[in-house]
Design a protein that fits this description.
The complex is a heterodimer. By secondary structure, chain A is mainly alpha-helical. Chain A contains seven helices and two strands. Chain A has a two-stranded antiparallel ribbon with strand order 1-2. In chain A, a hairpin with a 5-residue loop joins strand 1 and strand 2. In chain A, helix 2 packs parallel to helix 7 and helix 4 runs antiparallel to helix 5. Chain A starts with 11 loop residues before the first helix and ends with a helix. Chain B is of the alpha+beta class. Helices cover 27% and strands 27% of the residues of chain B. Chain B starts with a helix and ends in a 5-residue tail after the last helix. The chains are: A mainly alpha, B alpha+beta. At the A-B interface, strand 1, strand 2, helix 3, helix 4 and helix 7 of A face helix 1, helix 2, strand 1, strand 7 and helix 5 of B.
Chain lengths: 260, 184
């Protein structure tokens, strides 16, 4: 029996979420450019220091990094769940969140590089543990997505993917803790939020950027998951159709045999 | 009973071909290998990245106090040193070979070192904002800065390590500085 599936990834809820995300993003841009002051401080000697306008990139870079962690972390959890329950639902969830994690991971690297040029005086620094471990994290999950493209039985593909997701998840912790573990091997600053060294307007806008980012993540995840589900349904329909054809052929053969 | 009843009962033109089908030919060409090649490429890139990181021991920053303490031991080895520029603009100096350079002093935990830098100076070069400078020790009195100990650190690359402090203190002094046009 064929399952009837609506051929869309959209729903009323996702449309509302999409518009809310868009409105939130517009407000975030306004807050980041019109409300948050540039980063400046004055030293005891009267020198004005700071990142000045470059600090505004924080509102894209930091949420992107958090969302990359979220995507890869969700892939890890969904992979564990697949090992426990062995259902396609968890495999599709792992796949969808890995794709979104890679998107935000690349965005993290790009915005970090753009921020690094005026702030650190370099686009990229080989040997910087935070930068390199982040690159490796993204590459591992690019590899995860590549492995999923290798033609294989769905269960085999899912098992291979689980192995990579579990190995890749170890690096998420390393990336996050690298600025503390190898302080003398990275230009990257330590966490501002944990140290609570941030002015109120910046903290509010940064928190708001997390909320907008999470809404965007949820919107992307819903669509990507539904797309994966539709793809699996199409595959199933093709299998069902092929089986129907073969049954029809077999029935025809049986009818022929019954005739004297 | 014949071996093939359908041949007798069904018009051969309309009969379905129920003979075993040959297996579908495997996907030929480069398309089949794309995912495998992609995985291999990713592994190669990861290997390259790890090799780059692990092979270069000079990437560890030495703090000024550590670098000064181990100066004899380090000799002319190239390494990275981290310290905060002491307040005041870097001075323009000319090296013995005629090359222009800038000189300044860095400090960390109360230990000062003089630096002669021949590379570009970061726009973010600011007092109290740590810089990572790439170079080696030179025993010479050609430049005597705040440390004035017969040594200077000859660097040709400067990076800025910004801290994680985004608070504002002394807002009134900052406003005064802005009014004076100290920054825009």
């Amino acid at each position: 029996m064929s399952t009837v599936v609506a051929a869309t990834t959209s729903s009323k809820a996702t449309r509302v979420l999409g518009w809310l995300t868009l409105a939130g993003f517009a407000l975030l841009v306004a807050l980041a450019f019109a409300w948050v002051p540039e980063d400046t401080r004055i030293t005891e000697q009267g020198d004005v220091v700071g990142q000045f306008d470059a600090v505004r990139l924080m509102f894209v870079h930091v949420p992107s990094a958090i969302l990359a962690y979220t995507g890869f972390g969700l892939t890890f959890l969904a992979s564990l769940a697949y090992l426990r329950w062995r259902t396609d639902w968890w495999d599709m969830m792992a796949h969808a969140s890995a794709e979104i994690g890679v998107v935000f991971g690349v965005l993290t690297l790009v915005t970090g590089s753009i921020w690094g040029r005026p702030t650190w005086q370099t686009w990229w620094e080989w040997g910087d543990v935070r930068l390199v471990t982040t690159l490796v994290m993204v590459l591992v999950f690019v590899g995860y997505l590549a492995v999923r493209r290798i033609p294989a039985d769905t269960a085999v593909r899912a098992r291979r993917s689980v192995v990579i997701a579990l190995v890749g998840a170890v690096n998420i912790v390393i990336v996050n803790r690298s600025v503390d573990w190898w302080e003398n091997r990275t230009l990257h600053q330590q966490s501002t939020l944990i140290a609570r060294k941030i002015r109120d307007e910046t903290l509010f806008t940064l928190s708001f950027s997390f909320a907008v980012g999470m809404a965007l993540f949820a919107w992307l995840l819903l669509h990507r998951f539904r797309l994966a589900y539709l793809e699996s349904q199409i595959e199933q329909l093709e299998v069902d159709e092929a089986m129907e054809e073969r049954r029809a052929e077999a029935d025809l053969l049986d009818d022929s045999e019954e005739q004297p | 009973m014949t071996d093939s009843p359908t041949e007798e009962l069904v018009d051969p033109e309309e009969a379905m071909d129920l003979s075993p089908r040959p297996p579908r030919p495997a996907r030929r060409g480069i398309r089949r290998w794309v995912p495998v090649l992609l995985v291999a490429a990713v592994l190669l890139v990861i290997g390259f990245v790890l090799w780059k990181v692990l092979a270069d021991a000079t990437l560890v920053f030495r703090e000024v106090d550590d670098a000064v303490e181990r100066r004899e031991e380090l000799g002319e080895d190239r390494f990275r040193m981290i310290g905060s520029p002491v307040s005041g603009s870097p001075q323009d100096v000319t090296l013995d070979d005629g090359r222009p350079a800038v000189a300044f002093s860095v400090i960390l935990d109360g230990v000062v070192a003089d630096v002669v830098h021949t590379g570009g100076v970061s726009d973010q070069f600011q007092p109290e904002v740590p810089v990572v400078i790439d170079g080696h020790w030179v025993q010479s009195s050609a430049y005597a800065g705040l440390a004035d100990d017969g040594w200077y650190f000859a660097s040709d690359r400067m990076l800025v390590k910004h801290d994680n402090d985004y608070r504002v203190e002394n807002q009134d002094r900052l406003d005064d500085a802005e009014e004076r046009g100290q920054y825009e």
